[in-house]
Specification:
With about 70 residues, this protein is an all-alpha fold. Helices cover about 60% and strands about 0% of the residues. Helix 1 runs antiparallel to helix 2.
Length: about 70
Amino acid sequence: MGIGGCIALIAVGAILTFATDWHMSGVNLDLVGLIMMAVGAIGVAAYVSIFKRRRLQPGLRGGDPLVEERRYYE
């Protein structure tokens, strides 16, 4: 799930929690919305953490070639 899916989970969860007044038997929509927002927030945090780790390592992106410098002494 990418960053867009995580943000969509947060948005749908917020709508279920704060903007609806539906009542279903056996389902608490406020709790379902809170769970969706929590899962979305955890997903965003994980995505940002993984993305930051990838950016810190040189040579992992396709456009950045690794440069190796060798010095020969006689």
